[in-house]
Amino acid sequence: MGKVGDLYRQRVADGRIEADPAQLSVLPHLDRVLDDISAAPPPEKRSAWRAFLGVGSPPPVAAPKGLYLWGGVGRGKSMLMDLMAEAATVPARRVHFHEFMQEIQAGLNRARQRGDQDTVRPVALEVAAAVRLLCFDEMQITDIADAMIVGRLFQVLLEQGVVIVTTSNRAPEDLYKHGLNRQLFLPFIALIRQRMEVVCLDSPVDHRQGRASGGQVWFCPADAAAKAAMDAIWSDLTGDAAGEPRRIEVGGRSFTLPLFADGVGRSGFWDLCGKPLGPADYLALSRTVRVLMIDGIPRLSASNYNEAKRFVTLIDALYEAKVRLIASGADQPEQLYNEGEGSFEFERTASRLREMQDADWGQDKG
């Protein structure tokens, strides 16, 4: 595979993307990471069994400097991350940060059950035994559980020679802003600055806006006309099936999707976001459906902050899984959450909701 710059220019030549001066300016930083990895000696390997037990750890190595790429929504960060994973010539993994932290939390639970004193280290060693390059998309820290372990996790990964590249909508200093016990999180920000090159993708263009749209998939306001349109789409997609509840199992528990037929799910907003569901639930949902219909998305604000936060997590899961979304809402995506705590984070969600209205969205799903 060629370098990121080569792949990017090939995509431009093929007409798959449009050249963006801001994106072009960060290509050398991405290629620098790949060059440094290629030049660095590979870390000592252990058997998977010894890695699982967390014993026989190889000595710490100086991992090449990673990259923290941040900027506004729709600027092409995820696309560049895809190209980097494709261009890598070492074992690499590209994963959404939410999904990765769910895997880490599951690993920590297994370590606790084994009675490990240091639960983070064996989990990090398992990861380090499998990859040399970790590409995280959309790093954001909103959960105190993640905030308390991510610094230790990154520290061990870097000690083991894993190179980390991540995208984010925020500068490092704005991660977990105003979070509980944030002073305990500050050393992680210092670690990012020390071990990762911080680069801003400062493009004035939101590439998710202005895309060609197909049939209408977002209806507002969420009134009787919107419901009738949603009903007609349901009938068309399912062959007039009545649908029935679908139980979705997640880690020994379950939740219910109100309607399911032929790969299409349908639910009211409050059924999915008004209940104590989290990333693992929404990831399981995104693996169950190829199309999800959501009725009655309300205006979001501080008064329904928890529900809004769940909605953001739900859209992240659907977006990563390329699930087609059809929904009715109180307003257009950009106008759903205009002020108050959480409105900044919602800018990315609104941009994704707009992109998901594209006619080609999710065509490679299933």
From TrEMBL:
Coiled-coil residue spans: none
Alphabetized Pfam families for the sequence: AFG1_ATPase
A Gene Ontology term for the protein's cellular component: cytoplasm
Keywords: ATP-binding, Cell cycle, Cell division, Nucleotide-binding
GO molecular function: ATP binding; ATP hydrolysis activity
Source superkingdom: Bacteria
GO biological process, one term: cell division
Keyword Cell cycle: yes
InterPro entries the record matches: ATPase_AFG1-like (IPR005654), P-loop_NTPase (IPR027417)
Membrane-spanning ranges: none
Full protein name: Cell division protein ZapE
The species this protein was found in: Paracoccus lichenicola
Classification lineage: Bacteria, Pseudomonadati, Pseudomonadota, Alphaproteobacteria, Rhodobacterales
Gene name of this polypeptide: zapE
